[in-house]
Every structure is written in C-alpha cells, then in structure tokens.
Specification:
The chain is mainly β. It contains two helices and 20 strands.
Length: 339
C-alpha cells in the first residue's frame, strides 16, 4: 500500500469517528448542590451542602454622631462600630449543639460560646444581664462573663445556675462567682431575678485578704398593646460590676475587710408610634467604697427609633447625666443597619 493511500485512509477514519461522536448525546456535569433552609432551628439558617450543620450569619453596622457639653467644654465625635455574628448548629446524639461567635473590628470578640444539653460554655452574657433597655446609653448592670452554666425551663419558668468569671472583674480570685437566676412570665408580664456569690480581695492586682461578696439583681417588664414598661434594680456588696456594669478600681471593693456597696435602678417607658418606637428612660446609680468614698450618678434620656427601610433605622437620642462633679448633656444621632 502506498504511503499516500495509507494517510488518506487514516484521515477518513478520523473524520468519520468525529462525526459519530458529534451525534452522541452530550454528558452534563452533576448540578451543584444547593443550600437548603433549616426550619427546625428557626429562620435565617441554611444547611451546608454535603453535611448536617446549619449556619446563620447576622450582624450590624452602626454610626454614632454625638455632641456633648459639660460646663464650658464641648465635644463632637463620630464613631462607627461593626459586629458580625456566626451561628452553627446541628443535631447530635445529645441533642442540638450550637456554637456562637460575635466579633467586632480589630478582632475584638463580644461573645464566643458553645451550647449543648442545657449547658452554656464560653464567653456570653451573664445571667444577671436582664436590663434590655431601648436607649443606647442607659445605666445598667449588663456584664459579659466567661462561664460554665446550666439552664432549663418548665412551662413558663426558666432557670440557670453556674460559675462565672466576669470579664470586667480584672482581679485575682481563688474561685469563680456562683450565679443563679430565675424568670417567669404571666400574661404580658415577665419577672426575672438573680443572686450572686462573689469573692473579693483587698487588692485587685495582688493576692490579699479575701472576703465573700454578693449581689442581687431583678427586672420586671410588661407590654400592653403598643406600650411597654421595664423596671430594673440591682444591689451589690463587694461585687459592683453586677450593679454598675463596671468594677470599682484598685482595692476599693475591699478595704481592710470593709466591702463596697453599690446599687442601681432604672425605669423605661416605650410606645410604638407609626413605624418607630419612642423611649423615655430615668436611672440612678451610687456606690460607696470600702474607703468610704461615695459616687452618685443620675441619668435621663429620651429617644425615638425610626425604621427607614428593612433592617435600616435612625435613632436620635438626648441624654442628660449628672455626677457628683458635673452635668453632661449629649445629643446622639445613631444610624444602624442590621442584617
């Protein structure tokens, strides 16, 4: 067979094979798996394809424009904050296991905890944090704590008991705080209470004589139609963070075995108005250190939270705070986007 004949025959076979392959049905790749919802865990969760873990992303961007005046001193400031929260939950042989992370700018962590079988383990809001006032700068006793807490419910009754190391404490202690809380609902009313046993040392930075302090926190709230009311109170001995939201500096909590005393009260009224909500707030806080140094603060605020679009609102707020040494009046304009 001549070489030219062989080449022509081979080319013909290649062309025929290509034509036959073109007539065959094309094979399509498998469609990409789609994320599905997780209604068992609530709205906003979606399931990761190929697994059983459900994820939820949320967060907020907040801008505060404020102008403050204290006597003859005036100060203007614009500040912004960002929070991103990620929740992951899945069903296991011990029930649902959830992890939660709330992080801000520069890697600051608000909350980071795991929940499973009734336990909360990690950095989360203290069981004493129950003053959920609508104003942004009201006095309160909210505390974030590293904790190991067990909670449950029976009908309208909820409870929790556990060990907490207050992030705000900043002192040496040989044991964590013991915190027990209970809450119940009756119609439109909710009543919450908590008790704390805390160790307080004579120095916040070095080992010293230790004494046992304590705190009691209570909150009552009710909503009737479009009107709401909330009353909060706290009293602490040697554990000011549970009444003031911050701890007295140095050894002021425990001076030669004499423990500090601190108390706070707050009252808020709210009313739905159109597409927004108006708030009125009044609060007072005081403390007496072991060295008998006294401090008093009163605060009044009026605010209106207006929805502009889904997840976007503006909130002007006027706050007047009076301490033993000064009166400060501040006007805020908060713009926040929740997602």
């Amino acid at each position: 067979m001549k070489l030219s004949t062989l080449l022509l025959s081979s080319a013909a076979l290649v062309v025929a094979g290509s034509a036959y392959a073109a007539d065959l049905p094309a094979k399509k790749g498998a469609p990409a798996a789609k994320a599905t919802g997780c209604p068992a865990f609530g709205s906003g969760y979606f399931q990761i394809p190929g697994g059983d873990t459900c994820i939820k992303f949320s967060g907020r961007v907040r801008v505060d424009n404020n102008f403050a005046q204290t006597s003859d001193t005036r100060k203007h400031d614009i500040g912004g904050t960002v929070n991103l929260a990620v929740e992951a939950v899945n069903n296991t042989e011990i029930g649902a296991v959830k992890s939660y992370l709330d992080s801000g700018l520069a890697g600051s962590v608000g909350y980071a905890y795991i929940q499973a079988a009734g336990m909360t383990m990690g950095k989360a809001a203290s069981a004493t944090s129950m003053a959920n006032f609508g104003v942004g700068y009201g006095l309160g006793s909210d505390v974030t704590a590293q904790q190991l807490t067990y909670g449950g419910s029976a009908g309208a009754l909820s409870f929790s008991v556990g060990l907490e190391d207050s992030v705000l404490t900043g002192s040496i202690a040989s044991r964590p705080d013991v915190v027990a809380a209970i809450s119940t609902t009756a119609g439109a009313m909710k009543v919450s209470a908590a008790a704390v046993s805390s160790e307080t040392r004579a120095s916040d930075t070095a080992a010293g004589a230790a004494s046992n302090g304590y705190a009691y926190v209570g909150n009552v709230s009710a909503n009737v139609g479009t009107v709401g009311v909330a009353v909060h109170g706290a009293y602490a001995v040697g554990a000011s963070q549970y009444a003031l939201g911050t701890r007295l500096s140095g050894g002021a909590e425990n001076t030669a075995g004499t423990l500090s005393q601190a108390q706070s009260v707050g009252l808020q009224l709210s009313a739905a108005m159109g597409t927004g909500t108006a708030y009125l707030y009044a609060g007072a806080a005081s403390s007496t250190s072991g060295a008998n140094a006294k401090s008093n603060t009163t605060q009044y605020a009026v605010s209106y939270k207006q929805s502009v679009a889904k997840g976007l609102f503006i909130q002007p707020e006027l706050v007047s705070a009076t301490t033993d040494s000064a009166v400060t009046n501040t006007a805020y304009l908060r713009i926040q986007r929740d997602f």
